[in-house]
């Protein structure tokens, strides 16, 4: 009885020691390896800002280039060169049944400036200028605005011309250069008026024609681009002595 009892006591004493050394159990609240690996790390705002991918900068024009604008700017070099015989300045007449009754209704300058609308903005053209207002002769025989427009369109295109713009002249285009400046160089064509603008390009000519249709009054401005004729010079010393 003594020897079995001794074995029993030995086993009882060794059991806690073996349990402490060889157990793989973990506390219930300790995170397992899988749980630790699936936790999400939240970066601070400063860290997020530093690690966020940089936004792509808008493409900039290369050196010597300009950013494209809707429709593009008007370029006279794109107009076909006409070889038609234009006749004499101002190249187009008034409508049949219309006349300019007073000298004040017509202004001719060997050199002046006109502002023409190219579809986007008013462009200054300098050279020989004629501004003329026509009035219907018989109020019972007026010509419709549409007929006037179609007549000039047909004529000018037959001469190799191109219609550059057609429609109401924008007020903002006039305000951009100043109303007083605009009126000084344009006569009776004003903001809000229906204006058809044409250009005829030839080897040695660039002619702009503006048509403002109207049943009772209608206007035509013709500008042929040209260099300014030099009309003044220095006074010779001999002339000064005479005076």
Automatic annotation (TrEMBL):
Keywords per UniProt: Signal
Quick one: signal sequence residues?
A: 1-24
Comp. bias intervals (Low complexity): 27-69
| UniProt-annotated stretches for the region Disordered | 23-69
Its protein name is: Uncharacterized protein
State the species of origin.
Answer: Hymenobacter rubripertinctus
Taxonomic lineage of the native organism: Bacteria, Pseudomonadati, Bacteroidota, Cytophagia, Cytophagales
